[in-house]
Specification:
The chain is an alpha/beta fold. The chain has helices spanning about 20-40, 55-60, 65-85, 100-115, 170-175, 185-195, 225-230, 235, 245-250, 265-275, 310-315, 315-325, 340-365, 375-380, 385-390, 395-415, 415-420, 425-450, 455-465; strands at about 5-10, 40-50, 90-95, 115-125, 130-135, 155-160, 180-185, 200-205, 205, 215, 220-225, 255-260, 285-290, 290-295, 295, 335.
């Protein structure tokens, strides 16, 4: 039976246009998925849009649109965004889909049936930016550290609660017995510390009269589901739960990609909810850092926002994928500026890989009588490359590939086939042709490793080798 692997990103809120952080998570997940497929594994990569909640409802009203029309418009933008980035997704899940809504309601019923959902009055401090309740210890000078421009709301009403406190021991056991469940280890330590301080139950509904945009709570027309409770269920509704048990068992459990602002939701709340509903934990959760610019969080008011679509227009999709995978840390925050992106493009793509391909294939076209006969060894991917990706060390995997390009450049400089081929000595000419053939084989190996990261570049290089013809410049000078 063919091995299967289920992979998902988080679903972005549709309260704003796609940004560089979304691009990072999509490209990282796509890179991971493509390397799995390269090993013959059947993959299901899920992306999509999170379309309920107070933030979305507020934005729809601000735009003077009906909420459904508003989310339809933004879901289309995110799908186009993913297509532009060449994301090889297998499912695009929208939380307003009828199948998802039914799954979320069934999930609610199962949690309620075991006594994990109850009704109570509450007063909490709430960050609408995070769509989460906040404790005093999580606030900085009375504001959420992630949304300093938003005032904390004091909310008083009667809502439904989920008994998160019931699952402290079970989730703590998960972390202690599965050390690689949450990557990187620093995030796991954060969750263990949080659990050790004691977990509090959290609100999972909103009064419909105040905030009507949400999935109806089963058997209570006055409430809609809290956005996080409904949205997390997409990971199982996408694979047929609860109706298609065979499909669910084929794909579950899942490996999740998420940003560091979602650790608690993905690695704690969701895992407790799964336990409550009688379902297995996720397989693994990878948490990436943020992208800053000029040492600060990107903000329109600061004028340092880098639009990924503008980057693709200027440098191309492949260059953006390259920068996000090689020059952004998988685990820590990374700083990018437009000047740095231009430098990476020029140094490593235009003057680096692009120049290497042009030089080698110019020599091959001129001095090899026909395309070289490739072997399986030429296109074999080094296991060390896969090992780095399996450990989510995407930048190291890219370094591994570009080290091959540097080695080919060094070979070119040392052996100088472009000089020897001009010799009147037949032996020198023969040696030069062997060197050129060696370099062409090196390009094939580089292309094989680049397929998951820069698929169109890899295809262009491979095609040039098959035709024994120099391609157009891969990365034109800008």
């Amino acid at each position: 039976m063919k091995k299967t692997f289920y992979l998902t990103t988080t679903l972005p809120y549709v309260n704003a246009d796609p940004h560089l952080g979304h691009a990072l998570e999509f490209v990282q997940a796509d890179f991971f998925a493509r390397t799995l497929r390269a090993r013959g594994i059947e993959v299901l990569l899920n992306i999509g849009t999170d379309e309920y909640g107070a933030k979305v409802y507020a934005k729809a009203r601000e735009a003077r649109q009906e909420p459904q029309a508003y989310v339809d418009q933004y879901a289309a933008r995110f799908r186009k965004f993913a297509d532009t980035l060449d994301i090889s997704y297998d499912a695009f899940t929208r939380t307003t889909n009828e199948t998802h809504e039914k799954a979320a309601q069934e999930f609610w019923r199962r949690c309620k049936a075991v006594g994990d959902i109850y009704k109570a009055a509450y007063e909490v401090k709430y960050c609408i930016g995070c769509e989460l309740e906040k404790t005093d210890s999580e606030l900085d000078k009375g504001r959420c550290p992630l949304h300093q421009n938003m005032e904390i709301e004091i909310r008083k009403e009667e809502n439904y609660y989920f008994r998160l406190s019931r699952y402290s021991d079970a989730i703590l056991k998960l972390y202690k017995h599965t050390p690689d469940f949450l990557i990187p280890a620093e995030r796991a330590r954060e969750m263990i510390a949080l659990i050790s301080r004691g977990l509090k139950d959290f609100s999972i509904s909103r009064v419909k009269l105040k905030m009507p945009w949400g999935i109806p709570v089963p058997d209570d027309e006055e409430h809609v589901m809290y956005v996080w409770f409904d949205a997390l269920v997409n990971y199982i509704s996408t694979i047929g739960w609860p109706e298609d048990e065979k499909m669910f068992k084929k794909w579950w459990p899942v490996t999740q990609f998420a940003g560091k602002d979602q650790v608690r939701q993905q690695a704690l709340m969701w895992q407790a909810m799964l336990l409550s509903a009688g379902l297995p934990f996720s397989k693994q959760i990878f948490i990436h850092g943020f992208i800053t610019s000029g040492g600060q969080k990107m903000s329109k008011s600061l004028g340092n926002v880098i639009d990924p679509l503008i980057l693709t227009e200027r440098y191309g999709v492949e260059a953006l994928r390259y920068v996000l995978l090689r020059h952004v840390s998988p685990f820590e925050d990374s700083d990018l500026t437009e000047a740095a992106i231009h430098e990476h493009y020029t140094a490593h793509l235009t003057n680096g890989l692009g120049n290497l391909v042009a030089r080698v294939m110019t020599l091959a076209e001129a001095h090899l009588p026909h395309p070289i006969a490739l072997t399986d060894a030429d296109e074999k991917i080094d296991p060390a490359f896969f090992e780095k990706i399996d450990a989510f060390r995407f930048n190291e995997a890219m370094d591994f590939v570009f080290a091959k390009a540097a080695a080919a450049d060094a070979f070119m400089a040392e052996h100088a086939p472009y000089k020897k081929i001009k010799s009147s000595d037949a032996t020198e000419q023969k040696s030069a042709r062997r060197d050129i053939e060696h370099l062409v084989r090196q390009l094939v190996g580089i292309a094989a490793h680049l397929i998951p990261a820069m698929p169109q570049t890899a295809i262009t290089i491979a095609s040039a080798v098959r035709k024994n013809k120099k391609p157009d410049n891969l990365f034109p000078r800008l």
